[in-house]
């Protein structure tokens, strides 16, 4: 089973654990409710249930504001990683466990839409959402909520000590200077691993990506099951990796990983210890939709409106370590100072991913998984 955005939650949680502090992202049980006025379920309910993967998190004050503005209380039903959560909704299609589903991304979007999970709804304020994230703009079955970039991160100290320029592109990673330096996640079990694979497909094409991975394999790329192992056990630039005496200065992670390293460090450094190879990035877009058969459809629509409000969008970065999609939402200083701006990430159309994902992963596995 491929894990999805949960990796970003683990990024914060694992780093915080390594530093002895409490992470902000993804906290709480699988049945959390925001503060505010309650209500009974069913018709006319004042509770609106958001079904999500485990990484959903929002400030209590922000959810309280939603309650004050609409009268609805948000109940969050967390359901494991996004793949698991989506599977559960497909199995209960027409009789959903909640009103809104959050967490399907562009790697799984076609599957969700083809399953007929969502009731079309054009959220208020959708015109403020970046056009390139609106992958279902004609039918409004899903609403874009956030974006994130899967990219190679590098250990700044390692490259400074070696007087070696860090890699900047996919091509660089296959050069002899970077032999035995990269660790990545299994594309069949990890979202960052899958995103990195898709980035190579987008860059080198249907046939070229296999030749590229042959080069990486000869150049000593290491493949591990998931993000937590790659980042906190194998990557020398992370807080966890330093404790584990890791020896790989290149890792597939997120463009938002350097700000996390700064946020949880005590004392906070003047410069992030890790950097981002911005020429290796794949763009993920995450969506929410009104579940077909929702008991509280009115509340679900109100929640979708709120998820693209400026208030919620500006709350996301330091809670879920993702980027807002609305044009007027400002990023926190931590992101602008320490994060990487990815001007031209690679992308693959959701229908193309749906058609070819299994074949691409199988071909990749035959080349690099030992």
Please sum up the structure shown.
By secondary structure, the protein is an alpha/beta fold.
Structural commentary:
It is built from 15 helices and eleven strands. The chain has helices spanning 6-19, 60-70, 82-91, 109-114, 156-161, 170-173, 191-218, 227-234, 239-244, 257-263, 297-307, 310-315, 317-320, 333-338, 350-368, and strands at residues 31-33, 47-52, 73-78, 100-105, 118-119, 143-155, 182-185, 222-224, 250-254, 274-291, 323-324. Strands 1, 2, 3, 4, 5, 6, 7, 8, 9, 10 and 11 form an eleven-stranded mixed beta sheet that branches. Strand 2 (47-52), helix 2 (60-70) and strand 3 form a beta-alpha-beta unit. The chain is globular and about 65 Å long. The model is unreliable at 3-7 and 13-43 (pLDDT under 50).
Shape: globular
Arithmetic mean of pLDDT: 88
Number of strands: 11
End-to-end Cα distance, whole Å, is 19 Å
Give the helix level as a range of percent: 25-40%
Radius of gyration: 20 Å
- Structural class call reads alpha/beta
Major beta sheet, specifics?
11 strands, mixed
SSE string, helices as H and strands as E: HEEHEHEHEEHHEHEHHEHEHHHEHH
**Unreliable segments of 5+ consecutive residues:** 3-7, 13-43
Number of helices: 15
Instruction: Determine the strand fraction and express it as a percent band.
Output: 15-25%
């Amino acid at each position: 089973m491929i894990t999805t955005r949960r990796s970003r939650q683990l990024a914060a949680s694992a780093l915080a654990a390594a530093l002895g502090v409490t992470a902000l992202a993804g906290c709480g049980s699988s049945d959390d409710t925001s503060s505010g006025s309650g209500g009974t379920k069913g018709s006319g309910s004042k509770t609106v249930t958001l079904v999500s993967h485990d990484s959903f998190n929002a400030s209590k004050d922000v959810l309280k504001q939603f309650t004050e503005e609409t009268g609805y209380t948000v109940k969050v039903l967390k359901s494991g990683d996004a793949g698991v959560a989506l599977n559960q909704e497909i199995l209960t299609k027409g009789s959903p466990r909640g009103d809104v589903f959050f967490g399907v991304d562009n790697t799984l979007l076609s599957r969700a839409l083809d399953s007929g999970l969502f009731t079309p709804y054009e959220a208020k304020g959708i015109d403020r959402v970046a056009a390139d994230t609106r992958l279902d703009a004609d039918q409004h079955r899903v609403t874009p909520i956030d974006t994130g970039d899967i990219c190679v991160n590098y250990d700044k100290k390692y490259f400074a000590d070696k007087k070696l320029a860090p890699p900047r592109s996919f091509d660089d990673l296959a050069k002899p200077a970077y032999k035995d330096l990269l660790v990545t996640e299994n594309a069949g079990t990890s979202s960052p691993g899958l995103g990195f694979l898709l980035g190579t497909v987008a860059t080198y094409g249907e046939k070229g990506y296999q030749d590229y991975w042959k080069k990486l394999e000869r150049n000593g790329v290491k493949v591990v099951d998931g993000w937590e192992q790659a980042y906190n056990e194998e990557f020398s630039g992370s807080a966890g990796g330093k404790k584990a005496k890791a020896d790989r200065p290149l890792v597939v992670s997120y463009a938002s990983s350097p700000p996390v390293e700064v946020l949880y460090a005590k004392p906070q450094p003047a410069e992030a210890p890790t950097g981002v190879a911005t020429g290796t990035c794949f763009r993920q877009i995450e969506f929410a939709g009104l579940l077909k058969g929702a008991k509280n459809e009115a509340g679900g629509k109100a929640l979708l409106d709120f998820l693209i409000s400026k208030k919620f969008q500006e709350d996301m970065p330091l809670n879920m370590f993702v980027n807002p999609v609305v044009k007027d939402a400002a990023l926190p200083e931590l992101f602008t100072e320490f994060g990487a701006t990815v001007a031209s990430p690679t992308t693959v159309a959701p229908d193309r991913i749906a058609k070819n994902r299994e074949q691409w992963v199988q071909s990749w596995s035959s080349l690099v998984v030992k």
